[in-house]
Amino acid sequence: MASIGGGFMGVSIVLAQIINISNITLGHILVYGSALGLFSYFVYSGVAFANDKSKVKHLKLTFLLQVPWVTSPVLSYKIAAGFSLSGLVHPSGLQFLYNMGSDFSIGLLDGQSWGLGLNLAALGLYYLTSKIAVKRT
């Protein structure tokens, strides 16, 4: 299941990055804590669904949380567990990203330009899990 493997991969990526920080700040705690919490939730949702196929609500939320890609001078957010096929529109033009594996970009006050995008893979998986949920009700 993608959310279990991708979530575990994400947790390991976050922990590896935390280990390499020499001077931990409040910003590090907020960013890495958020990423660790999200990836852990992705694992939980996959395990819950694997154990009981009627528990699709958490799996849907897992995919929905991976859809947005937002950048701004104040906040940036992108997270993917396992796979992403993303596009971002920003002042410099279009940016596309294809990634096998987990990744995240969460930033506070990092001065990025305004941008808005989405992860098409996560959007597609959200749509499919929504169809599963409708069939089960």
Descriptive notes:
With 137 residues, this protein is of the alpha+beta class. Helices cover 51% and strands 27% of the residues. The strands form 2 sheets. Strands 1-6-3-4 form a 4-stranded antiparallel beta sheet. The radius of gyration is 16 Å and the shape is globular.
Features:
four-stranded antiparallel β-sheet, 4 helices, alpha+beta, 137 residues, two-stranded antiparallel ribbon, 51% helix
Describe the structure concisely.
With 137 residues, this protein is of the alpha+beta class.
Spans of at least 5 consecutive residues whose pLDDT stays below 50 are: none
Mean pLDDT: 90
Q: Estimate the global geometry from the Cα principal axes.
A: globular
Structural class: alpha+beta
Beta percentage is 25-35%
Q: In terms of quaternary structure, what is this?
A: single chain
Treating each run of at least 4 consecutive H or I residues as one helix, how many helices?
4
Distance between the termini: 22 Å
Spatially, the strands of the biggest sheet line up as 1-6-3-4
Q: What is the N-to-C order of secondary-structure elements (H for helix, E for strand)?
A: HHHEEEEEEH
Sheet having the most strands: 4 strands, antiparallel
The tally of beta strands, per DSSP, is 6
Percent helix among the residues? 40-55%
